[in-house]
């Protein structure tokens, strides 16, 4: 019932018949369909925010990733309605391996909120390897929420890195309620002065579930602020 635009990916592939978004003042597209200016922007930043040599999982995603999401908010566009992305795994007859790639570019003075959630329908055992590259330009604001509620048959490795410009604000919230083995890597680079960053999260696990949250905040210029809970 959330008032949002939403996109649905099923077993790693975009499902337009299940999605509902009417974006007019910013760009949302899948990696398969990029062309023109969108493809130029993607190619300019691909692998520049999260370098492929960072770890073996990032290298694997860079080599084998076939699908994902590209979002670009132009300068000074304030997007009021959040964008919701639902990742669904379904089936019972085979194991799934999914390589998903995101790139979110928030232009100067713009703002956006994205909510990603993970769900399992059926008894499919799955392993996801997601890489998310985010660039938040000067005076821009960005919020990213990740809900890991896919069930105990789902394992995930998530590499997310944010580069922030001057006077920008970036917030992340990660909520983990289920999963077999989950690793979340969150890296922030505060690349100019008067930058503000918030890394928030909560987890509720039981049994043999395993979770590893790795966070790193790089204050690369003075007069910045970061907060982690």
Please characterize this protein's 3D structure.
With 229 residues, the chain is mainly beta. Helices cover 8% and strands 53% of the residues. It has two helices and 15 strands. It has helices spanning 36-45, 56-64, and strands spanning 5-10, 13-14, 27-30, 67-73, 83-91, 96-106, 111-122, 126-136, 141-148, 154-164, 169-176, 181-190, 196-203, 210-219, 225-228. An eight-stranded mixed sheet has the order 2-1-5-7-9-11-13-15, with no helix packed on it. The chain is globular. The model has no long low-confidence stretch (mean pLDDT 94).
- The poorly predicted ranges are none
The assigned structural class equals mainly beta
Order of helices and strands: EEEHHEEEEEEEEEEEE
Percent strand equals over 45%
**Cross-sheet strand order for the largest sheet:** 2-1-5-7-9-11-13-15
Helix content: under 10%
Number of separate helices = 2
Mean pLDDT: 94
Measured distance between first and last alpha carbons: 28 Å
Tell me the major beta sheet.
Answer: 8 strands, mixed
The counted number of beta strands is 15
Rounded radius of gyration (Å): 17 Å
Overall shape: globular
Quick take:
8% of the residues lie in helices and 53% in strands. The protein is globular and about 50 Å long.
Q: What descriptive keywords fit this protein?
A:
53% strand; 15 strands; mainly beta; 2 helices; seven-stranded mixed β-sheet; globular; 229 residues
Topology, pairings included?
Blueprint: E1 5-10, E2 13-14, E3 27-30, H1 36-45, H2 56-64, E4 67-73, E5 83-91, E6 96-106, E7 111-122, E8 126-136, E9 141-148, E10 154-164, E11 169-176, E12 181-190, E13 196-203, E14 210-219, E15 225-228
Parallel strand pairs: 1-5, 4-6, 5-7, 6-8, 7-9, 8-10, 9-11, 10-12, 11-13, 12-14, 13-15
Antiparallel strand pairs: 1-2, 3-4
